[in-house]
């Protein structure tokens, strides 16, 4: 399958990337060897070492105006009150006013990993499985592979003696896996300075939906997380003594939590569904070609418990409709056995994944109103409170804009197939930050496959995805420059 477009003469770039494959794999292996785990205070020096590795690479490749932005001490909770946040590394390649400027974001920190967790090989020693053509190691796909990908694109241009078709600005952070502390402030501060003149932000930090077909991602759901606190007796009590003669917090909480969502996934809070943007025919059409099946969902979930039995309904409910999940009850007895406790205080946790056009504040109001009404119906002497713990907005872009179309052409050049236009059910908060602060479009251009195991054991990146991924990133810059 293909769509007609004018091909650019960039085969020499692709050929050069193929020739540089050993060097590119070597670069990734050096990056993986630095255990830059941002959540582990003991490993903070390694995160800093990784930032220095990047500065060195950028310098050798000829980047200019390289800046290491210190972000100060990490706010509590921390063991070491003087713990410094890892810096954000900025650099630019070219500053020709006649060219467009693309900002690429990536992160150089990784999730924790221990061999004992069940890894087949040492997580921080890249293992190149040559029979399967797979690179294993923590950070291979999330996000060191893609970060090296952008550097590789520049190296290939240098080797060819080609100019980059755009001005490239890089922004690499070291706290992504730990809440991106300090990043929002930096982006806001640099929006009119270092990031001045940026026309487009491109992020390679997510994955294909499946394992065979490239995707471009144009939407993410948001998340509003709530808790309901129910407080009764002054301490946990014994049901043999107090059962039947006092109002139990758990009973009240379960009653109220059961009014939030039904077993088919329908949100029961009045007014929520009415805020969801109607599905247009054009959007509906995007779901037709997407490579996905009920079987894949069942395999990923490890069960046959799908609520929808066809591809389009599953994807729509994952990406463009809201969902409400009940996560847990703090303070409840949750161990094995048969403890006869009456918990004195319980806190029910749930969240709503949000989509266009749900307004976050309006959603909060609807949630509070519904829960307060349900609590009132109980006529219980217990104390109640419902509150928002945190929220993050959804993001959606226009898959028909010039940046997405440029990435689609590059994908067709490299993979010989029109990519699927997908959304994701989760969030990547930085996407919204860049869009809001810089006022430009954001494109999510993933490199790895859906089964790469980011955050899991045996994280991997297929060599094919790495090398073709570099070609796609490079090709994208050329098509975007001409768009
Ligand atoms: Zn990531």
Automatic annotation (TrEMBL):
Keyword annotations: Dipeptidase, Hydrolase, Manganese, Metal-binding, Metalloprotease, Phosphoprotein, Protease
Residues given in the record as Mn(2+) 2 binding sites: 107, 142, 205
Domain spans labelled Peptidase M20 dimerisation: 220-377
Keyword Protease: yes
InterPro entries: ArgE/DapE_CS, CNDP/DUG1, Cyt/Met_Dipeptidase, Peptidase_M20, Peptidase_M20_dimer
GO cellular component, one term: cytoplasm
Residues bound to Mn(2+) 1: 142, 177, 455
Residues the record marks as site: Important for catalytic activity: 238
Binding site for substrate: 205, 238, 340, 353, 427, 455
Active site: 109, 176 (proton acceptor)
Gene name tied to this protein: DUG1
PROSITE patterns: ARGE_DAPE_CPG2_2
Pfam family, one: M20_dimer
Domain of life: Eukaryota
Example GO molecular function: metal ion binding
Identification of the protein by name: Cys-Gly metallodipeptidase DUG1
UniProt record similarity statement: Belongs to the peptidase M20A family.
Cofactors named for this entry: Mn(2+)
């Amino acid at each position: 399958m293909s769509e007609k477009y004018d091909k650019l003469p960039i085969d020499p770039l692709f050929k050069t990337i193929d020739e540089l494959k050993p060097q590119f794999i070597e670069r990734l292996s050096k990056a993986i060897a630095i255990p830059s785990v941002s959540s582990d205070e003991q490993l903070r020096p390694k995160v800093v070492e990784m930032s220095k590795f990047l500065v060195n690479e950028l310098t050798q490749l000829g980047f200019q105006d390289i800046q290491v932005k210190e972000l100060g001490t990490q706010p509590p909770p921390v063991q070491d009150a003087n713990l410094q946040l890892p810096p954000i590394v900025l650099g630019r390649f070219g500053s020709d006013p006649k060219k467009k400027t693309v900002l690429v974001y990536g992160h150089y920190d990784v999730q924790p990993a221990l061999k004992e967790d069940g890894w087949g090989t040492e997580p921080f020693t890249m293992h190149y499985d040559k029979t399967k053509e797979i690179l294993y190691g923590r950070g291979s796909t999330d996000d060191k592979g893609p970060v090296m990908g952008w550097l590789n694109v520049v190296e290939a241009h240098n080797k060819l003696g080609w100019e980059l078709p755009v001005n490239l600005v890089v922004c690499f952070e070291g706290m992504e896996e730990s809440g991106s502390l300090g990043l929002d402030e930096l982006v806001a501060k640099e929006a009119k300075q270092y990031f001045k003149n940026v026309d487009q932000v491109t992020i390679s930090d997510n994955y294909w939906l499946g394992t065979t077909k490239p995707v471009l991602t144009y939407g993410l759901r948001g998340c509003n997380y709530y808790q309901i606190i129910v407080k009764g007796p002054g301490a946990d009590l014994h049901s043999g003594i107090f059962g039947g003669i006092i109002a139990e917090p758990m009973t009240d909480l379960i009653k109220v939590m059961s009014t939030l969502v039904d077993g088919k996934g329908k949100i029961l809070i009045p007014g929520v569904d009415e805020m969801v943007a109607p599905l247009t025919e054009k959007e509906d059409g995007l779901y037709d070609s997407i490579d996905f099946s009920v079987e894949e969902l069942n395999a990923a979930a490890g069960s046959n418990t799908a609520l929808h039995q066809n591809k389009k309904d599953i994807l729509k409910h994952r990406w463009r409709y809201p969902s409400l999940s009940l996560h847990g009850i703090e303070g409840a007895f949750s161990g094995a056995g048969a403890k006869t406790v009456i918990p004195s205080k319980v806190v029910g946790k749930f969240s709503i994944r949000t989509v266009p056009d749900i307004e976050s504040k309006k959603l909060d109001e609807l949630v509070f109103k519904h829960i307060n009404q349900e609590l009132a119906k109980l006529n219980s002497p217990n104390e109640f409170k419902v509150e928002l713990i945190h929220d993050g907005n959804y993001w959606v872009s226009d898959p028909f804009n010039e940046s997405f179309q440029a990435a689609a052409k590059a994908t067709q050049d490299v993979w010989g197939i029109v990519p699927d236009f997908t959304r994701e059910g989760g969030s990547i908060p930085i996407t919204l930050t860049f869009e809001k602060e810089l006022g430009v479009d954001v494109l999510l251009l993933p490199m790895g496959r859906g089964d790469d195991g980011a955050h899991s054991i045996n994280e991997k990146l297929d060599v094919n995805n790495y090398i073709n991924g570099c070609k796609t990133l490079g090709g994208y810059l050329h098509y975007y420059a001409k768009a």
